[in-house]
Automatic annotation (TrEMBL):
Pfam families: adh_short. One of its GO terms (molecular function) is oxidoreductase activity. PANTHER family: PHOSPHATIDYLINOSITOL-GLYCAN BIOSYNTHESIS CLASS F PROTEIN, PHOSPHATIDYLINOSITOL-GLYCAN BIOSYNTHESIS CLASS F PROTEIN-RELATED. This is NAD(P)-binding protein. The lineage of its organism: Eukaryota, Fungi, Dikarya, Basidiomycota, Agaricomycotina. It comes from Mycena sanguinolenta. InterPro entries: NAD(P)-bd_dom_sf, SDR_fam. Keywords: Oxidoreductase.
Length: 344
């Protein structure tokens, strides 16, 4: 049974936050998507304090990313931060990012897929997809799948376990993938990206939450297809409702409502980053227990009732097939990844 609202509010209380977990990341490489600000940047600071061999700050903006690298050094003394550019609203940029890692990226131990947007309005990317769905799910999934071979090779060469952390949200408890979307003749994802479907104001407002639900479905499905003996562990994590620039593009009454909610119950950004770090390095001796799990407040939480329902299981399967089909058409290398690593 999914947690009650009271339990979720309880996890928002500052005094209930777990301390940041400690780990030795000497020699290891961490990649954080959306690293230049907010929770992503605070996560990088924690990894820097764990003496990571390298931290790749994957950012959209050269200017803002460079500022983040310099700020990371100033605030932690860490000098091995690297700025890599990737624009998740542009599939070509994502492929170039992955190609670069294949040629000169070196080892890769941890990916924290933190980048996301919440525009609150309908926008098409240059690739013709609704922006929230492309950035939060399709491009995030493309990065992860393209870098999967490097995560595997790193784990095998160094006799370690690599981790993939997909940043989701507690908001997944408040939404489902609606029946109209599940029954759409074009498939779930294309229906969710259809401007006619999103003309409904409520649906567009919930699009961010729905993508966070899809993030969990993707993490669960990826973990299942990797299998229980894979040297790569995948999980999804909720950072909690934190002070963040995520909602900077909202407008109208909803923007002011969210500002009020931030003032009333939002956690400090650093507190949210602790949860991401825990998902990435927590329970080193029992890491297998985190495979495919949903993590909140540095512990495993049960997913929503919809996720574990019969409809949810079918939705997860359908989304997995659709995602691989769409990404496979965008990037010919996805087929090889699927054949070699996702056969379970």
């Amino acid at each position: 049974m999914q947690p009650k609202i009271s339990a979720r509010l309880h996890s928002q209380r500052t005094k209930n936050q777990a301390p940041v977990v400690k780990a030795d990341l000497t020699g290891k490489t961490v990649c954080v998507l959306g690293a230049n600000t907010g929770i992503g940047f605070e996560t990088c600071k924690h990894f820097a304090n764990m003496n990571a061999g390298r931290i790749v700050l994957a950012c959209r903006s050269q200017t803002r990313g460079q500022v983040a690298v310099e700020r990371l050094e100033k605030e932690t003394g860490y000098t091995k931060g690297e700025l890599w550019i990737v624009d998740l609203s542009d599939f070509q940029s994502v492929k170039q990012f992955a190609d670069k890692w294949e040629t000169d990226g070196g080892r890769l131990d941890i990916i924290v897929a933190n980048a996301a947007i919440e525009p609150g309005k309908f926008f098409l990317t240059k690739d013709g997809w609704e922006s929230t769905l492309q950035v939060n799910h399709l491009s995030t999934s493309l990065v992860i799948l393209r870098l999967l071979p490097r995560l595997f090779s790193t784990a095998k060469e160094n006799r370690t376990i690599s981790r993939i952390v997909v940043v989701s949200s507690e908001l997944l408890y408040d939404v489902t993938v609606e029946k109209d979307a599940r029954a759409g003749p074009e498939g779930i994802l294309r229906t969710l990206a259809n401007p006619q479907y999103l003309k409904n104001t409520r649906r567009m407002r919930e699009q961010y939450s729905v993508t966070k639900l899809i993030n969990l479905f993707f993490a669960r499905a990826l973990s299942a297809h990797l299998g229980p003996s894979a040297p790569v562990i995948v999980n999804a994590v909720a950072p909690g409702f934190c002070v963040s620039e995520l909602r900077r593009d909202l407008s109208g009454t909803f923007k002011y409502f969210m500002k009020l909610m931030e003032w009333m119950i939002a956690l400090p950004t650093e507190h949210g980053s602790r949860r991401l770090v825990w998902a990435a390095v927590g329970l080193p001796l029992r890491a297998d227990t985190l495979r495919g799990q949903f993590i909140n407040n540095c512990e495993v939480w049960e997913p929503s009732d919809f996720v574990i329902s019969e409809e949810g299981r079918k939705t997860e399967k359908d989304l997995w097939v659709e995602t691989l089909d769409i990404l496979g058409r965008l990037d010919t290398k996805i087929g090889a990844v699927k054949e070699r690593y996702l056969s379970v």
